[in-house]
Write a structure and sequence with these properties.
Elements (H helix, E strand, L loop, with lengths): L1 H5 L4 E2 H14 L10 E2 L17 E2 L2 H6 L6 E5 L13 E6 L2 E7 L24 H4 L10 E3 L7 E4 L2 H18 L5 E4 L8 H12 L3 E4 L9 H7 L16 E5 L3 H4 L4 H9 L3 E6 L11 E4 L5 H14 L5 H7 L5 E3 L8 H4 L9 E4 L3 E4 L17 E5 L5 E6 H9 L4 H8 L3 H13 L3 E3 L11 H14 L21 H6 L4 H20 L4 H14 L4 E2 H7 L10 H4 L7 H10 L15 E5 L3 H4 L3 H7 L6 E6 L11 E4 L8 E3 L7 E5 L11 H18 L4 E3 L5 E3 L3 H5 L10 H11 L8 H7 L1 E3 L26 H4 L19 H5 L19 E6 L13 H5 L6 E4 L1 H4 L9 E5 L4 E8 L7 E5 L49 E7 L1
Length: 964
């Protein structure tokens, strides 16, 4: 900066930005590993055109003076996976082809006059993206590895060379070994807009393997899926305003939902109390009326103790429980399994379950509606029944069994498991019992814990016992997601006319069959998703890394770590795959050959990533990273292709019900040779087409053994040339045109305005689970279709289901939610390493950003309690070695009284290159595979897109720490 200020040098706007960022960010952050060392100049690039040279400036003051002048303002957003907070409308100011700054648009409408609106929306990460996008870590042109993988040596090549060499590898793989060995790690950058459309079309046409990484990253919400038959349901954030008890249980919304957090504050003006249940006194606890401390891994015990008090003090909603849950259902005492129609009648239905009516005795529970009419299911029936073979067996309700179970979880007993003082447990339970509308702030924390499903089942139980569903401002929630439903139609259109017609006709036939069998709209969609999943439309990302990435090796010692497990986890895995409870593509033994990381970063993300490098990388013929910035994965790739960053492409993106407005934006500018994801996929499809033609390959066998055309691939991809390489805008518009849940929304208007409110949930598994109406003038309260309209839930029992009798749950003693001690993952060490989303980045996108680092310690840091630091001789700001049986790494320590003794916290998504010797903190996370996650077979326990697949976990990792 001195240099800029000290002399009469000539500096244009781009140079000014780059000098400032490279000087203070690049050097300070030790980004030398990222600088792309090139050994040869590029061949001429395919478009986009270089930006015309901007005018020169005398010095930095000229640049600053012109900050308030611009050539154009466009609407855009950050097409990053900021999930719970997604998304926000921004005005982006462009001058001389550069984005100069951004500003929140703050023009969302008032939904109800008595409820706060959504303005303004944004966060500090988004507010500095105009700086971030010119960071030295940006990828400017295609790069090819010029040394060993991971050596950091690169050669600049042209797009043509990059795509033709990658296409060569793909065609060889398709021709010699099978197209399912081409792997797409879609990462969290999925937009459901033009970006997703391009990759989905190419992946489907090639019958290649797309990884579903939702459960892998720990967002699988298995406990929610086990209980509700779906995981995706959520309220709009303004619905908090109707709540009188808002519970942040394992969540930290003032870090993770910055644009939504004001609704919590505003609800307090309306009389709501905020309760935080967390091990640490975090940024959200500061705003709470009651902070309830809990041991990491103790939440299920706490939840069960709350249930015990609620039942003991008769603060439960019996009418709600009888109608909406499986608690009145009968279970056989001799087997511990539900009483089924097949028990009572020869040839009876396995899925028909029973409850006990005081007048009629055992009665088949209605499955097409929750309306009970004159039926009165008893909650505490305990009786004998004659089976079809004449055998007499004792049956009791799930509720009776639950009461027996939770007798062991009095506040006094549970306190030793969860660490919460008994009077506080009792008070918390009474607050739940008294609340008119208690709700839960969504969190994906527990999906990242080995026994997190037990916690989620328990949380759902607390809200069910108190009847806190379907009322405004009430309810435990799952995972938030809301998207348009135009993409499936767009993908289908890439198939040739006769095939498309056949697929549509088969789909309609199946839909009719299911509807006649009493399936609701959401059940039909989930069933279609399960079928597609079984056929390999997508595959479990977690299982892919366990099996093909060798991560299962880290679970070898699981029997030592998990005292409840009686057999090797590999045996359970084999059983699961053999019985088709879970699926994996490519099949074990068929090694992956070509892999794409699409604005993803698996070597940063995957727990235990050194195993992936050891087991998977040598099998890969070609590893390609497509991203706008260099990442830990890019450093280990063969090719790195520059993707357009968020202000550099026309796009729209999914949101969540928390913010029920689709967001769209126009391309504001371009950057060097970066291309949009659609264009990259389009050019790749063309390159594969050409390569196959050059080799005379006209078709290939797909994974089911059917012959598929390879000839004319690009023609199919582009719908006969209708959607060309640069047609992002047209593709994005085509998706909106095909959507049924954006009625009256015109693409041209949407991209100028930046947002439009969804008009309904639409017909897609991503959104339908919220089971509520979206109206222009009211908040969204989830599950009202079930609670008010009596639509059955998509579970085996058609109710909110707390009892699971699938074999693996019986084997592990988890028919009902129980407390289990967390495994000592990584070895028997005294500290438990946890984490969470950070305030200063969305995943790794801003982790090495100069401005965000200035708000923290400037480098990766681990939070540690005073009680744990002192005996180890560690002071605030010291560097420490963290270790367990798997490995070690070094990190700066932040000693904080807010941290619970026995716990250390690393907020996630630091890139490996930010650590000494590039050893990131994920290297000692074993992520053991939980056996019940391998279950399947039963109605709602079968895997589908997004859910009911195995996951990766990290919240149980045991470590010790010593001064480095
Ligand atoms: S990063 Fe996400 S939450 Fe932050 S301003 Fe951008 S869209 Fe909004």
């Amino acid at each position: 900066m001195d240099r800029v200020m000290s002399g009469p040098i000539h500096l244009d706007r781009r140079s000014f930005l780059q000098a400032a960022l490279a000087g203070s960010a690049g050097l300070a952050l030790g980004l030398s590993a990222l600088s792309c060392r090139e050994s040869e100049p590029s061949e001429p690039a395919l478009g986009p055109q270089r930006i015309p040279a901007p005018p020169e400036y005398g010095d930095w003051r000229d640049v600053y003076r012109e900050r308030w002048q611009w050539d154009k303002v466009v609407r855009s957003s950050h097409w990053v996976n900021c999930w719970y907070q997604a998304h926000c409308a921004w005005n982006v100011y462009v001058k001389d082809g550069l984005v100069w700054r951004e500003e929140q648009s703050a023009d969302y409408p008032q939904i109800r006059p008595d409820v706060p609106d959504f303005n303004p929306r944004g966060c500090q990460k988004g507010a500095c993206f105009s700086e971030r996008m010119y960071d030295p870590a940006r990828i400017r042109h295609p790069l090819k590895r010029a040394g060993e993988r991971g050596s950091g040596k690169w050669k600049r090549i042209s797009w043509e060379q990059a795509l033709s060499e990658i296409a060569e590898s793909m065609v060889t793989t398709i021709d010699e070994e099978g197209s399912d060995r081409i792997i797409w790690d879609q990462g969290p950058g999925i937009s459901m807009g033009a970006q997703t459309a391009g990759n989905a079309r190419l992946s489907v046409l090639l019958d290649s393997t797309s990884l579903d990484m939702n459960t892998e990253i720990g967002d699988g919400h298995r406990g929610v899926g086990e209980t509700f038959g779906k995981i995706l349901f959520e309220r709009s954030a303004d619905d908090y305003f109707f709540s009188d008890m808002i519970v942040c249980w394992g969540s930290n919304p003032y870090y993770t939902q910055i644009p939504n957090a004001h609704f919590l504050t505003e609800a307090r003006y309306n009389g709501a109390q905020i309760v935080c249940i967390t091990p640490d006194f975090n940024a959200s606890s500061v705003h709470a009326d009651l902070w309830v401390p809990v041991k990491p891994g103790g939440d299920a015990a706490l939840g069960l103790a709350i249930c015990q008090v609620l039942i003991e003090e008769d603060m439960i909603d019996r009418e709600f429980i009888a109608e909406q849950t499986d608690l009145p259902f009968l279970v056989r005492e001799d087997t511990g399994l539900f009483l089924r129609d097949s028990d009572l009648h020869e040839g009876g239905d396995e899925d028909e379950l029973y409850f006990h009516d005081a007048q009629r005795g055992a009665v088949k529970a209605p499955r097409r509606t929750l309306e009970l009419g004159d039926l009165r299911p008893e909650l505490e029936a305990d009786t004998e029944i004659t089976l079809h073979d004449g055998k007499r067996v004792r049956v009791r309700t799930v509720f009776s069994r639950l009461k027996d179970l939770i007798a062991a979880y009095t506040p006094e007993e549970a306190s030793s498991l969860c660490g919460t003082p008994p009077p506080m447990i009792r008070e918390l339970a009474q607050r739940f019992g008294r609340a008119k509308a208690a709700c839960m702030v969504t969190s994906s924390n527990f999906g990242k814990a080995y026994h997190g499903n037990l916690t989620e089942r328990t949380q759902a139980l607390v809200y069910a016992l108190t009847g806190n569903y379907g009322k405004k401002g009430s309810g435990f929630v799952g995972f938030p997601f809301l998207t348009h439903d135009g993409i499936e139609k767009f993908i289908l259109e890439s198939f040739a006319f006769p095939i498309r017609t056949v697929i549509s006709a088969m789909g309609k036939f199946e839909e009719t069959r299911l509807r006649l069998a009493g399936f609701t709209d959401e059940m039909i969609l989930y069933e279609q998703s399960r079928n597609a999943f079984a056929m390999g439309m997508r595959t479990s990302g977690a299982l892919f890394w366990y099996i093909h990435g060798g991560l299962i090796e880290a679970s070898e010692k699981l029997q030592e770590w998990d005292p409840y497990l009686d057999r090797p986890i590999k045996e359970v895995l084999e059983e699961s795959l053999e019985k088709n409870w879970q699926y994996i593509w490519p099949k074990p033994g068929n090694d992956p050959r070509v892999m794409f990381s699409l604005v993803s970063n698996p070597l940063r993300r995957i727990r235990g990533y050194p195993l992936i490098l050891e087991h998977l990388w040598p099998k890969l013929r070609t590893m390609v990273t497509i991203d706008w910035r260099m990442t830990s994965t890019g450093l280990w790739s063969d090719y790195v292709l520059p993707a357009a960053a968020w202000y550099e492409r026309t796009e729209h993106k999914w949101v969540t019900p928390l913010m029920p407005f689709i967001h769209a934006g126009e391309k504001a500018t371009s950057f060097e040779e970066a291309k949009s994801d659609w264009e990259i996929m389009s050019r790749l499809a063309e390159a594969v087409d050409k390569e196959a033609a050059a080799r005379g390959i006209k078709s290939f066998k797909d994974r089911t053994g059917n012959e598929r055309p390879l000839e004319g691939l690009y023609d199919a991809f582009s719908s006969g040339g209708e959607y060309g390489h640069g047609d992002d805008d047209k593709v994005a518009g085509a998706l909106i045109e095909r959507a049924s849940n954006l009625e009256g929304v015109e693409w041209e208007e949407l991209k100028k305005k930046g947002w439009a409110r969804f008009t309904s949930l639409g017909n897609t598994i991503g959104s339908i689970g919220t089971a509520a109406d979206i109206t222009p003038d009211d908040t969204i309260t989830p599950l009202t279709h079930h609670v008010n309209d009596k639509q059955p839930y998509p579970t085996l029992s058609r109710r909110i289901q707390f009892y699971l009798d699938q074999e693996l749950y019986v084997e592990m003693g988890e028919q009902l939610p129980v407390h289990k001690e967390p495994p000592t993952a990584g070895g028997d060490y005294p500290l438990i390493l946890t984490g969470g989303h950070t305030r200063w980045s969305i995943h790794s996108a801003w982790r090495d950003d100069k401005l965000m680092l200035q708000l923290q310690r400037g480098e990766p840091a681990m939070w540690m309690s005073v009680e744990d630091a002192e005996p180890r001789g560690i002071s605030d700001g010291d560097r420490a070695k963290v270790f367990n049986d798997l490995d070690s790494f070094e990190i700066l320590v932040k000693v904080a009284p807010a941290v619970r003794p026995g716990e250390v916290i690393i907020y996630h998504a630091w890139d490996n290159f930010q650590f000494k010797d590039q050893k990131g903190f994920q290297n000692l996370i074993a992520s053991p595979l939980n056996p019940v996650e391998l279950a399947g077979g039963q109605f709602h326990l079968r895997p589908m897109d997004i859910s009911m697949q195995p996951s990766h976990t990290d919240r149980d990792t045991r470590v010790d720490v010593a001064l480095a």
